[in-house]
């Protein structure tokens, strides 16, 4: 619908024409980048998108109905397990005994994704974590389409540039609404680290429900985290920091990691310096607030 | 026009049927007993009185005098004479209901329709939720069909479904915003429920830290020197004070606690007891295809697992009696799913669309609105030993706008639903709810039907009020040789009391009624939004 509107306007209004051209340019750029198999890093200006997305609306999202049906193999092609079809059928039967036979079970990986960067943005943290956690599979999750595409192209280019050193094979990005669909991707206790870096502050009180940290969402983070797994939070907004601290503090499944331990964690340094937002705050000489929370064992069921 | 009964609930030997906002009771022979009518007169009057009432309340609230609101007066009058019965746990509780602000009632154009009727396991209390005013009402039931309103609590968001914990102390309200609140069935005077519950929840999880409270103006009287700036500062303080007051008024004034939440509209909630450890769990289903299993109070922060696999929204879930580890779920998918919710495993799928297409071959999708499971009482002719081997649960399923009831059998040794019968409804009327009457000599099925659904074209005639139909809105089916057949039993409802019923003062159009009664299909997602 939007497109035909643009076409009509193009002839008369210059501004509309410019807009269309810009969009067209972006699309051309992206397809060219993909088709040429270019190893050049993508440029952000071709992937701009407004900063907010409504987590409550029904985006046209793709997500598996069940974590077992998630196809990770195209995202981490170097970690695909060589499996005989017999094995596959067996594991299939264990998970969902009556699963429709026509649904093909996706290929398994040699290891599971263990680190998630929720709201990875343009992927600064992902790229920095890749060499720091070489034996872990790391996944960035982002709700905005263009931004996800940028990170996808960025990872692709980085993999190509570092073909020999075999770098950046352990990172991937996925478009997802984690507030709704986290349990569709990860099983109980699958993750060891969750990063929540410079999340949307949602200043207005009536938008607080949209914040990525809340009493009820924290239960979901606890669900996908294994005991002693860690949630990393960082923000430059003091109010939001207090909010996140308050909510994790009040949640019986989490305890705060001591400052000593926090500062000794190499991931904290990376989180401070390597995220796009982190760099921006640095340039403006703003303050950064960090808080780490450890997932506790579930109490015995009373 | 006559509004149909649309919700049924059997409680002991009494049948409760909801019509619009009111609840009517019938005995097991389906003779009318009594009614609780939705306070419609009040609703219209409150509007005019509101301003003065709130004014008065402001003055009198400090003196702790008698309540000035009509509603409160009425309920305490009602409560006073029967107070001696003392069978309820929290005797004397209803008089000291928490104060509510004047906005409790929404505009009169909003139709009050009971959205769900629930009873405690002991049958002493009935709980009703109404959509338009977001209110949960608790009634005391004397066991003979008479209801006495104990409390009305308006939730912050519209409750979609509720469940009552096995100890009959707590109502679990699942709302449109995805949150589940716990609130005491009987409100206690001293907040005992809150104390116990939140203490048990380790740290009070409802007391989420409020971020906005922290704001204070950076300047003070000593740092501000000009007259203008001082005025500005005073103003700022005033605004803040007002805001603080408003914030206080925002949350409900009664005891309640946030237990868990999805970032999705909740559609169904149930409490299951695991046969493994005999512990209760809260099972919640949402529009985004999730069924979540959470530990019950006091450990609702622990999510035990998810039953995932639905491709479309889930609208209703059901734990069959005597099969406590099973869960039947349905919604926008073509099939009914049977799960072992304790182990999060899907056990079977049953094609419901296939059965529906036998009635209407052109049907492409369906929306399940009710799954109702019951245990038929074995009435043995010879000995009772023989029948044990084929004990089964009966499962009745209603789909939106399909004029039939689907009947399935779930044998005790099995985990698959076996289609037993599709019961077409006379005149092509749509079923709205179904209940099972364990009556002798043979059981009966009570179905609430929508008599206005005879012609499909009636939806197009928007302005025309529905014609008065003689079709009864309650239908009885009897079991003959293993098959359900409609009976001609006529159920006499209450005589319409002139002037007091909402339908007379403000007639409802067919379209309006359809909008209220058929809401399930609208849960289906339409992929229009791209970025």
Automatic annotation (TrEMBL), chain A:
Residue numbers binding S-adenosyl-L-methionine: 119, 142-143, 177-178, 197, 275-277
Enzyme Commission (EC) number: 2.1.1.33
KW Methyltransferase (keyword) present: yes
Compartment(s) where it occurs, according to its Swiss-Prot or TrEMBL record: Nucleus
Stretches that traverse the bilayer: none
Any one of the GO CC terms: tRNA (m7G46) methyltransferase complex
Catalytic reaction(s) noted: guanosine(46) in tRNA + S-adenosyl-L-methionine = N(7)-methylguanosine(46) in tRNA + S-adenosyl-L-homocysteine
One Pfam family in the UniProt entry: Methyltransf_4
GO MF terms, alphabetically ordered: tRNA (guanine(46)-N7)-methyltransferase activity; tRNA binding
Pathway the protein takes part in: tRNA modification; N(7)-methylguanine-tRNA biosynthesis
Similarity section: Belongs to the class I-like SAM-binding methyltransferase superfamily. TrmB family.
Protein name per Swiss-Prot or TrEMBL: tRNA (guanine-N(7)-)-methyltransferase
Encoding gene per record: TRM8
Automatic annotation (TrEMBL), chain B:
Pathway(s) this gene product operates in, as recorded in its UniProt entry: tRNA modification; N(7)-methylguanine-tRNA biosynthesis
A biological process term (GO) from this entry: tRNA (guanine-N7)-methylation
Bias type Polar residues, positions: 44-55, 76-85, 194-211
Keyword Nucleus: yes
Main location: nucleus
Keyword list, A-Z: Nucleus, Repeat, tRNA processing, WD repeat
Biased composition regions of type Low complexity, renumbered to the chain: 494-507
Domain of life: Eukaryota
Chain residue ranges for the region called Disordered: 44-108, 191-218, 484-509
InterPro entries linked to this entry: Trm82, WD40/YVTN_repeat-like_dom_sf, WD40_repeat_dom_sf, WD40_rpt
Repeat (WD) residue spans along the chain: 307-349
Gene Ontology cellular component terms for the protein in this record: cytosol; nucleus; tRNA methyltransferase complex
Subcellular location per the Swiss-Prot or TrEMBL entry: Nucleus
Function: Required for the formation of N(7)-methylguanine at position 46 (m7G46) in tRNA. In the complex, it is required to stabilize and induce conformational changes of the catalytic subunit.
Similarity comment: Belongs to the WD repeat TRM82 family.
HAMAP family, sorted: TRM82 (MF_03056)
Protein name: tRNA (guanine-N(7)-)-methyltransferase non-catalytic subunit TRM82
Lineage: Eukaryota, Fungi, Dikarya, Ascomycota, Pezizomycotina
């Amino acid at each position: 619908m939007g497109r035909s509107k643009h076409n009509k306007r193009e002839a008369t209004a210059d501004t509309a024409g410019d807009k269309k051209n810009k969009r067209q340019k972006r699309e051309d750029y992206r397809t060219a980048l993909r088709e040429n198999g270019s190893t050049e890093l993508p440029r952000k200006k071709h992937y701009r998108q407004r900063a907010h997305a409504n987590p409550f609306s029904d985006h046209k999202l793709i997500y598996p109905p069940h974590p077992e049906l998630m196809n990770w193999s195209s995202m981490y092609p170097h970690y695909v397990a060589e499996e005989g079809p017999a094995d596959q059928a067996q594991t299939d039967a264990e998970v969902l005994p009556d699963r429709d036979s026509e649904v093909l079970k996706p290929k398994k990986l040699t290891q599971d994704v263990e680190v998630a960067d929720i709201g990875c943005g343009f992927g600064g943290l992902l790229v920095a974590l890749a060499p720091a956690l070489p034996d872990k599979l790391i996944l960035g999750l982002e709700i905005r389409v263009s931004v996800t595409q940028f990170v996808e192209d960025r990872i692709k280019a980085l993999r190509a540039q570092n073909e020999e050193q075999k770098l950046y094979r352990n990172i991937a990005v996925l478009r997802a609404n984690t507030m709704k669909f986290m349990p569709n991707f990860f099983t109980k206790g699958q993750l060891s680290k969750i990063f929540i870096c410079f999340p949307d502050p949602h200043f207005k009180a009536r938008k607080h429900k949209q914040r990525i940290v809340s009493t009820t969402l924290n239960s979901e983070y606890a669900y996908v985290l294994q005991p002693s797994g860690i949630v990393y939070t960082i923000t430059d907004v003091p109010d939001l920091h207090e909010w996140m601290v308050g909510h994790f503090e009040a949640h019986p499944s989490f305890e705060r990691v001591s400052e000593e331990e926090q500062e000794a964690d190499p991931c904290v340094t990376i989180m401070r310096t390597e995220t796009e937002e982190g760099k921006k705050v640095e340039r403006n000489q703003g303050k950064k607030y960090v808080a780490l929370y450890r997932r506790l064992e579930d109490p015995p069921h009373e | 026009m006559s509004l149909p009964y649309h919700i049924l609930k059997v409680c002991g030997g009494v049948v409760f049927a909801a019509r619009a906002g009111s609840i009517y009771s019938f005995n097991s022979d389906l003779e009318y007993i009594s009614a609780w009518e939705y306070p419609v007169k009040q609703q219209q009057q409150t509007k005019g009185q509101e301003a003065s009432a709130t004014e008065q309340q402001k003055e009198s609230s400090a003196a702790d005098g008698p309540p000035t609101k009509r509603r409160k007066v009425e309920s305490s009058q009602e409560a006073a004479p029967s107070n001696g019965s003392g069978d309820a746990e929290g005797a004397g509780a209803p008089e000291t209901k928490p104060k509510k602000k004047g906005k409790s009632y929404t505009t009169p154009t909003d139709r009050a329709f009971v959205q769900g009727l629930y009873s405690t396991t002991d049958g002493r209390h009935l709980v009703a939720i109404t959509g338009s005013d977001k209110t949960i009402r608790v009634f005391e039931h004397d066991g003979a069909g008479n209801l006495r309103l104990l409390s009305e609590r308006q939730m912050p968001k519209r409750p979609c479904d509720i469940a009552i914990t096995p100890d009959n102390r707590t109502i679990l309200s699942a709302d449109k915003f995805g949150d589940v609140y716990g609130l005491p069935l009987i409100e206690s005077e001293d907040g005992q429920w809150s104390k116990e519950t939140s203490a048990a929840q380790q740290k009070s999880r409802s007391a989420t830290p409020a971020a906005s409270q922290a704001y204070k103006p950076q300047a003070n009287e000593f740092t501000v020197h000009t007259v203008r700036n001082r005025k500005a500062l005073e103003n700022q303080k005033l605004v803040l004070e007002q805001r603080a007051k408003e914030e206080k008024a925002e949350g409900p004034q009664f005891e309640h606690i946030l237990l868990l939440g999805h970032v999705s509209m909740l559609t169904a909630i149930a409490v299951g007891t695991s046969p493994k450890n005999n512990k209760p769990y809260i099972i919640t289903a949402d529009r985004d295809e999730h069924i979540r299993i959470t530990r019950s109070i006091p450990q609702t922060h622990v999510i035990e697992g998810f039953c995932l696999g639905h491709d479309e929204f889930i609208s209703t879930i059901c734990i069959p009696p005597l099969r406590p580890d099973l869960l039947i779920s349905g919604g926008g998918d073509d099939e009914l799913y049977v799960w072992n919710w304790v182990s999060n495993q899907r056990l079977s799928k049953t094609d419901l669309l296939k059965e529906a297409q036998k009635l209407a071959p052109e049907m492409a999708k369906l929306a399940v609105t009710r799954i109702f499971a019951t245990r038929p009482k074995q009435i043995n002719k010879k000995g009772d030993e023989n029948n044990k081997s084929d004990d089964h649960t009966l499962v009745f399923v209603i789909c939106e706008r399909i004029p039939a009831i689907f009947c399935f059998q779930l044998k005790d040794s099995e985990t698959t639903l076996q289609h037993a019968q599709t019961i077409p409804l006379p005149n092509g009327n749509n079923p709205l709810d179904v209940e099972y009457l364990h009556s002798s000599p043979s059981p009966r099925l009570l179905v609430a039907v929508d008599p206005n659904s005879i012609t499909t074209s009636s939806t197009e005639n928007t302005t025309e009020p529905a014609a008065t139909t003689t079709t009864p809105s309650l239908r009885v089916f009897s079991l003959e040789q293993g098959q359900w057949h409609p009976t001609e039993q006529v159920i006499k409802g209450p005589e319409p009391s002139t002037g007091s019923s909402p339908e007379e003062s403000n007639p409802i159009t067919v379209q309006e009624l359809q909008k209220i009664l058929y809401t399930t299909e609208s849960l289906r997602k339409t992929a229009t939004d791209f970025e």
